[in-house]
UniProtKB/TrEMBL annotation:
Family annotation (InterPro entries): HAD-like_sf (IPR036412), HAD_sf (IPR023214)
Organism: Rosa chinensis
Top-level taxon in the UniProt lineage: Eukaryota
Protein name in UniProt: Putative HAD-like domain-containing protein
GO MF annotations in UniProt: SNARE binding
Positions of transmembrane segments: none
GO cellular component annotations of the record: endosome; lytic vacuole
PANTHER family: OS07G0418000 PROTEIN, UV RADIATION RESISTANCE-ASSOCIATED GENE PROTEIN
Length: 269
């Protein structure tokens, strides 16, 4: 019996935190030009590592803009304007992102809508004007490209990203492994669930063992509530964007298996 894998993209195949940082930094330099005066590449690497940890609790891509400034304020007392940056830890941010977000916006005297607009404007312009460097700010997780190249299973991608962008990233890092018609860009969690239903209905998929790999626990829990999806094996990507708390919760849910990256790569091959 063959296998069918439906894979989320960000946090399963692709680590996009480098791109999140770079977009946020570009936008931050527009509104807060002096913020980066004392930022060197090792501090930048540190910021990207912290984004990877906090990413699971961010509510919108634009949150990266706030997060980058807050992280820099934590490390650089000279630029500190918010009352919370001193002594704050990344665990503290994960615990209370919503509260912190509102507070820093107020203390920085910034207008949320204007920042949202700026963030997406910068991101869209970057993609339009220089797609190659935008793609290059992303990466596939170690071993994933080889696993995709040698995979014998039927693989689909079901992602919250717009499908053309998932497509160009895959083309760059794992050329010709997944054809565009097997990449579904979805607008919501329920839309993702709908795609899984459609995949299992297809005549050519009858008899295949079904697997869904996702880094967002809420999406897997949503899948569990759908009796139609009872035939799917559900996996949480242990290397993706989820918190320790979510991993601990997933460990108590019998339907969900927590995968490690090396096991995932082996499974695909
Ligand atoms: Mg994801």
């Amino acid at each position: 019996m063959g296998d069918l894998y439906a894979l989320d993209f960000d946090g399963v195949l692709c680590d996009s935190c480098g791109e999140s940082y770079a977009t946020a930094a570009k936008a931050a330099k527009v509104i807060w030009p002096t913020l980066f005066n004392d930022v060197d590449s090792s501090l930048e690497d540190w910021v990207v590592d912290q984004i990877r940890i906090v990413r699971a609790v961010l509510q919108n891509r634009y949150d990266n803009l706030l997060l980058v400034r807050l992280l820099l304020e934590m490390r650089l007392p000279s630029i500190r304007k918010s009352s919370v940056a001193e002594g704050l830890t990344v665990e503290g941010i994960v615990e209370n992102w919503s509260g912190l977000k509102n507070l820093i916006l107020k203390e920085w005297g910034e207008d949320k809508d204007a920042l949202v607009k700026l963030y997406f404007q910068v991101r869209n312009e970057w993609k339009l004007q220089d797609l190659k460097t935008w793609i290059g700010a992303n990466r596939l997780y170690p071993g994933v490209a080889d696993a995709l190249k040698s995979a014998t299973s039927v693989i689909y991608i079901v992602t919250g990203k717009q499908s053309p962008f998932a497509e160009v990233i895959l083309q760059e890092f794992a050329k010709d492994t997944i054809s565009p018609e097997r990449i579904f860009g979805v607008s919501s969690c329920s839309h993702k669930i709908e795609i899984l239903k459609q995949l299992q209905e297809k005549a050519e998929h009858q008899g295949l063992k079904l697997h869904f790999v996702e880094d967002r626990l809420a999406t897997l829990k949503e899948a569990i509530t759908e009796p139609e999806l009872d035939g799917w094996n559900l996996y949480l990507s242990g290397w993706g964007y989820n918190t320790q708390k979510e991993k601990d919760e997933a460990a108590t849910i019998p339907r969900i298996e927590i995968l490690q990256l090396s096991d995932f790569n082996t499974k695909l091959k």
